[in-house]
Amino acid sequence: MSDHYETLGVSRNASADEIKKAYRKLVRELHPDINPDPETQEQFKHVTSAYEVLSDDTKRRNYDQGGVGGFAGGSGAGFAFNDIMDAFFGGGGTRGPRPRSRRGQDALIRVEVELAEACFGVTKQLSVETAALCLACAGKGSAPGTNPRTCESCKGLGEVQQVTRSFLGQVLTSRPCNSCQGYGTVISTPCGDCGGDGRVRTRRTIDVAIPGGVETGTRIQLSGQGEVGPGGGPAGDLYIEIIQLPHEVIERDGDDLHLDVAIPMTAAALGTTLVVDTLDGPQEIDVKPGTQSGAEIPLRHFGMTKLRSPGRGDLIVHIEVETPTKLDEEQVALLRKLAEHRSETRPEGSHSPTDHGLISKIRDAFIR
Question: Which positions ≥6 away from 220 have C-beta within 8 Å?
């Protein structure tokens, strides 16, 4: 019979921690789930038997004094299961009853805001339906004047143990108690309001401050305003998701705003001053003489409030020059007179040399 110290690869004066460390290392190498080779399984039995003796102070003392340590068999192998689990997963021991009180789930509601509200911020009063603490039983789940009783099946442990046989001998396993679902206690008389859950559905009103700069998809977290947990556990968080409604005339692009303004041909030619509606109210802009359709006039710092930095974006005014379509005889005469003064009675179209070159290249490619 091999020496137990040699089997574990430790010296005879090794400490208990050194023996346990050596055993864990060998378990990871020799366990049948990892190495199913028959010879390895036999070696694993020797390792387990050696550890059974050397991990017990009394058995180790007897062994050192000349006693014999045999293979772990029969009821003697029951000790090893927790150590094997410890070797693979760490820890060990029983889990104990699980608490009835647990954290509640997070909740999400969506809120629509106008563009001006998204820019400057707003406080919204919201009606929220969530799980709240049951006031009748204060979250305990038992009817007033009663308390949960200790489970008779598991004696309050929340789990029951079962002995099974394997090639290691008898192995002790634990599982949650079916009688109490692992809580260790049983609610004999549930609360009439919450049915033993410790919480009830309720509707409440809260004020939510929405900061300036939010946009569609922005989420605001309200800690502890979500669902109360089972057994009166702490509430989860409430998330407010923003949906920004489209504006009638102003379009948003990040922190900047865009506004299309149509002006008459004469105003574009002569120049003018326009009053445009912004989120801050009416503002004047100067249109320079000769302004072309498609010109952009920026209004600095009249855009959106920046959510995570100071300042605001810009409002870009896009100019569209309108060509009149209905003219009376006098207007036609005036325009013809203007055209004569500008030598534009028979104007020749102009084009970009770059465009002309591109068109020529395309034409030549087809001709070839």
Answer: 208, 210, 211, 214, 239, 240, 242
